[in-house]
Amino acid sequence: MMEVSARAAASWGKVILFLSAAFFALAAGQAAVRAEAPVPAALGTSPAVNSVRLGDHGKSTRFVIELAQPVKHKTFTLADPYRVVIDLPEVEFNLPQSAGQDGRGFIKGYRYGLFQAGQSRIVIDTTVPVAISKDFALDPQSGFGYRIVLDLTETTRSAFLQGREWPAQPTVKPPVQTPVPVQPAHDTKRVVVIDPGHGGVDPGTHGSTGVQEKDVVLAFAKELHRQLAATGRYHVRLTRDTDRFIPLRQRVAIARQHKADLFISIHADAVGKGNVRGMSVYTLSETSSDKEAAELARKENLSDVIAGVDLYGEPGEVTDILIDLAQRETKNFSANFARKVVDYAGKSTKLLQRTHRFAGFRVLKAPDVPSVLVELGFLTNRSDEKNLMSAAWRTKVAGSLVRAVDSYFGDRYAEGVYAGPAQ
Fold it and tell me: Number of C-alpha atoms within 13 angstroms, CB side, residue 252?
């Protein structure tokens, strides 16, 4: 009888344990959106985010991060637009490409990635100003790993602005660059800096399949780098060669650090209409650039703004005139290269109508480096998205840009801009 009772007690214990686990799983999954990797990493293997869950509980929205190991985190908020930011040590994100594109409750969506060396970041976009009403961590239990849990409740804008916590401004380390070898005086190679847009915590736009802009532009930039370097005519640098975040102004600084003769920023576009497609190329607009360039000149070392011209001791109006002259020349060179891109790329891929356009992109605002921003196509168009994911298309279109670069510098040699012999 005692043996039967023991077996019965053990059976009831298993039932209670099963029901408890099921209850916790149901509670965690109630009205939730779950983003998980196809094959989650085993607990304890490495710092990794294995899933993210969103739960709508009416008056609050819950955001749950599940990790392989416990990590310290910090949260703060940012306005215009409203965001909640979670800073973590550098972790791997074992999440599907579509993670973060859909929201729930007060959460519109979220982005994640490497913010700087040693630090990862998750940015939650919210539909309204919110307060972080709960912020806590949980140890593994009931089949779940380590968790960070945030509960967000709606608040007023004034309360949001008053209660937000501003973190200490991080010192963003520049990407590790391969040291630029000192070239002999007779070296006639031009320097081309390629800038893959977005990266890390900033994924850019995305396509219907979930592919992210930061990934397709990096793949294209690497192919363009390979083909330009293979000509032997150029020193070619990338602003980033991994999935990491770089502020816009730092991208400009990298180009100027390498004394770039040409700066090419690579992006992919998105629009509400799925039938819009084609490559376009942008140069800096006249209406928004002069003030930015002058401001840059005042803040930085003035002797380095225009190569070879020392502006120290000069009256302010002279400084402004010199900057204006340098930028006007730079804009002319930028527009010239943009026309080359249109001419050559049009033979390799479909172009957007009015292909050469003008806008006030910050990343184009180096006053002394000819710069263009190339939108490879629209990830919101199925044909363009297919192209952007195709290695064959990348090879063909990168080749057309190489020919545009060759033609551009060939023209500059012919104009007598460059004293050295043409390659």
Answer: 19
How many Cβ atoms from other residues are within 10 Å of residue 287's Cβ? 10
Cα→Cα distances 288→180, 247, 294, 392, Å: 33, 19, 11, 38
Eight-state DSSP code of residue 40: P
pLDDT, tens digit (0-9, with 9 covering 90-100), for 168-190: 444 444 444 444 444 444 467 89
pLDDT tens sequence across 317-360 = 444 544 554 566 788 888 889 999 999 999 999 998 888 887 66
Residue pair 372/341 in contact by the 8 Å Cβ criterion: yes
Q: Please tell me whether the overall predicted TM-score, pTM, comes out greater than 0.85 for this model.
A: no
List, in order, residues 6 or more apart from 226 with CB less than 8 Å away. 398
The shares of helix, strand and coil residues in the chain, as percent rounded to the nearest 5, are 35, 30, 35
List phi, psi (to 5°) of 136.
-150, 170
Structure tokens at 292: 């930015």
Question: Would you call 336 helix, strand, or coil by DSSP?
Answer: helix
Neighbours of 115 (CB within 10 A): 23
Residue 304 sits at φ, ψ, to 5 deg, of: -105, -5
Other C-beta atoms lying within 10 Å of the C-beta of residue 85: 17
For β-strands 83-89 and 74-78, DSSP reports them as antiparallel
Element (H, E) at 132: strand 130-138
Is the bond into 81 cis (omega within 30 degrees of 0)?
Answer: yes
Q: What is the largest CA-CA distance in the chain?
A: 105
Q: Please give the helix or strand (H or E) that residue 14 lies within, else none.
A: helix 2-29
Closest to 124 (Cα-Cα) out of 135, 108, 136, 137: 108
What's the burial of 336, exposed, middle or buried (CB within 10 Å: 0-12/13-18/19+)? Answer: middle
Question: What is the C-alpha separation between 287 and 297, in angstroms, rounded?
Answer: 18
Q: What does residue 200 show for φ and ψ, rounded to 5 degrees?
A: 60, -125
> Which phi and psi angles does 10 have, rounded to 5°?
-65, -40
Strand segments (E) across 270-332: 279-284
Q: Is 302 helix (H, G, I), strand (E, B) or coil?
A: helix
Q: How far is CA 173 from CA 54, 71, 119, 177, 247, in A?
A: 32, 22, 11, 11, 10
What are the structure tokens assigned to 274, written together? 């799925």
Instruction: Check: CB of residue 59 under 8 Å from CB of residue 134.
Output: no
Which residue type sits at 179? Answer: P
Nearest to 78 by CA among 119, 136, 126: 126
Strands 279-284 and 351-359: parallel
Cα(86)–Cα(125) distance, integer angstroms: 12
